[in-house]
Specification:
Chain lengths: ~120, ~130
């Protein structure tokens, strides 16, 4: 059951992160942090289909995560959810067209190995 | 606010909201008990636990700060840099929830710190990209 929940969380988190990154890349850099501007931004993002789909995927991930926390330690659950990590980096390169330099690949690989060790 | 300072500020906010939110959820779920049900009511009841509610509030803060950071930083930069949160969550589990951390987990923590240090040295934003 634990690993089924981890699989659901990893799939939903990957979808959510990629959609969120795509939506925010299209939006562009947020520069104005005044309350009025943030309110307008929130209203704009709430109507963005990519953001809405991302939040829906995140909701699935959230409920699977609290079910996992009721069965497993925090120090297992949090790193195990990073199973999506390598796939997300590949999708960032090929789907979001990000320039993943050797430094990012090396760092991402070290983190992925570290996360695998944490879940032992 | 310059980009490097803004990136550091929102990275810290993403990490802290995630670590505190996950810790709060874990604490709350220990009180709620085992939750593996297809009934939505079981999940709704869990949400009304004060620690779970605090965890949800912190994860909403995480969502907004994460989206803000992604508005100028690449996903392939944000993922490794914010993964220092895995280390802090493991430490919170050890210190406050008295969970065991084996030598393998400590080795994992060292690798994550090294990976984060490596990626944090790269630029968060692709050169020439619109911002």
């Amino acid at each position: 059951m634990k690993w089924l929940l981890v699989a659901v969380i990893a799939a939903a988190t990957t979808i959510s992160d990629v959609l969120q990154a795509a939506a925010m890349k299209r939006h562009g850099e947020i520069r104005d942090f005044r309350p009025g501007a943030l309110g307008r931004l929130l209203a704009l993002l709430a109507r963005n289909k990519l953001v809405v789909a991302s939040v829906a995927a995140m909701t699935v991930s959230f409920f699977a995560f609290i079910a996992l926390l009721s069965l497993a330690d925090l120090s297992f659950a949090v790193p195990a959810t990073a199973a999506s990590y390598a796939l997300e980096t590949v999708l960032a390169k090929y789907l979001l067209q990000e320039p993943v330099t050797w430094g990012r690949w090396a760092g991402a690989s070290l983190v992925a190995c570290g996360v695998a060790l944490l879940s032992l | 606010m310059n980009l490097r300072l803004k990136t550091r500020f929102f990275t810290v906010l993403v990490v802290l909201s995630s670590v505190c939110g996950n810790f709060s959820l874990s604490w709350g779920m220990r009180q709620v008990g085992r939750l593996v049900s297809i009934s939505p009511m079981a999940y709704v009841q869990a949400v009304f636990n004060p620690w779970v509610a605090l965890g949800i509030s912190l994860l909403i803060l995480w969502l907004f700060s994460h989206m803000t950071l992604l508005s100028w930083a690449d996903l392939s930069y944000v993922l490794p840099v914010t993964s220092i949160g895995y280390v802090l969550s493991a430490m919170a589990g050890r210190l406050f929830l008295h969970e065991e951390i084996s030598r393998w987990r400590w080795a994992g923590i060292l690798l994550i710190v090294a990976g984060v240090a490596l990626v944090a040295r790269t630029a968060p934003h692709r050169p020439g990209a619109p911002s």
